[in-house]
Specification:
By secondary structure, the chain is an alpha+beta fold. It has helices at residues 63-77, 95-112, and strands at 14-26, 39-51, 117-125, 128-135. It has one domain (14-135): Tetrahydropterin Synthase, Chain A. The protein is 24% helix and 32% strand.
Length: 136
């Protein structure tokens, strides 16, 4: 029987997450250097998967599946110029754009593993991030 979580007042969700670091390059057009020049950041990608009820195994989703998907994703951008993932409508790959790309890239694997929603934070520095959260 699935484990149901409720408070009687607010809906409660269960969550699991992972993070991984990746070094990648980007440029912010129109800004003075160094941001206006190609430069690197040691990004930390943080993902959190949630669902309303735990599955029959008592899990939100399989962390091994989630970890494999995140490892594959980070290998695609490690040491690369993020212009390669820039959507045509975006002027630059900001942390918000990067977070949306991570979400859209991981959503199929997260949904297949049982997750219902995915939150992504991309940390550009130890104190600054951009994020994106939506259903899978």
């Amino acid at each position: 029987m699935p484990f149901l979580t409720t408070t009687g007042v607010l809906p409660v969700t269960c969550e699991v997450g992972l993070s991984r670091s990746v070094c990648a390059f980007h440029i912010m057009p129109g800004l003075p250097g160094p941001e206006g020049q190609l430069h690197d950041h040691d990004y930390r990608i943080e993902i959190v998967v949630d669902r309303d009820q735990l599955d029959d195994r008592g899990m939100v989703c399989d962390l091994d599946v989630l970890e494999a998907a995140l490892t594959e994703l980070t290998s695609r951008v490690e040491g690369r110029n993020l212009e390669e993932i820039r959507p045509a409508e975006a002027e630059a790959v900001t942390v918000e754009v990067f977070a949306r790309w991570v979400h859209d890239s991981l959503s199929p694997a997260v949904a297949a593993a049982g997750g219902e929603a995915l939150a992504v934070r991309v940390w550009e520095t130890p104190v600054a991030f951009g994020g994106y959260h939506a259903r899978c």
